[in-house]
Specification:
By secondary structure, the chain is an alpha+beta fold. The chain has two domains: 68 residues, Alpha-Beta Plaits (2-Layer Sandwich); 72 residues, Alpha-Beta Plaits (2-Layer Sandwich). 26% of the residues lie in helices and 39% in strands.
């Protein structure tokens, strides 16, 4: 990502994963910047040989989601119950219970994830990981950003 760092682009989120096509990965990047900066990022991406297609979804109707796993301190049963209620309000779920902590999984738009994290913060966040945003256009339009995987 030094390609972007050297040019001063602020990357807010970067998510990369396999697609339904063998050997093809999809990269979703959220950048903070003006329209000109977004156009510059697209131009820089096309300079990478492995890039097949780049799409700017800024103005498109899209579905975007982010996943977060948040490990929260839970010192007793009542605290555990409170954390589970907070998670439930956000349609999160507890995916692990330890002696002194819970792991809450939440999926949704970034503001939803941020909001849940802020509500969990007073309990004490022990550890957290977020995927970054992934997105697809709504409806029949198939616009994707893909990067060909390098062979090992």
């Amino acid at each position: 990502m030094s390609l972007f760092r050297q040019r001063g682009f602020a990357i807010d989120s970067l998510a990369i994963g396999r697609t339904h096509e063998d050997g093809i990965s999809r990269l979703t990047m959220v950048v903070d910047g003006s329209k000109t900066a977004v156009e510059q990022v697209i131009k820089q991406l096309y300079k990478i040989i492995e890039v097949r297609k780049v799409s700017d979804l800024s103005d498109d109707q899209k579905v975007e989601r982010e996943l977060a796993l948040v490990k929260v301190f839970s010192r007793n049963a009542s605290m555990r119950a409170e954390i589970m209620q907070v998670a439930d309000i956000y349609r999160g779920r507890v995916v692990d219970v330890g002696q002194s902590s819970l792991i809450v999984e939440v999926t949704g738009q970034t503001d939803k994830v941020d909001s849940l994290i802020e509500l969990l913060r007073p309990y004490g966040i022990k550890e957290m990981v977020r995927t970054g945003v992934v997105a697809m256009t709504r409806g029949g339009t198939a616009r994707v950003t893909v990067v060909k995987e390098k062979s090992a």
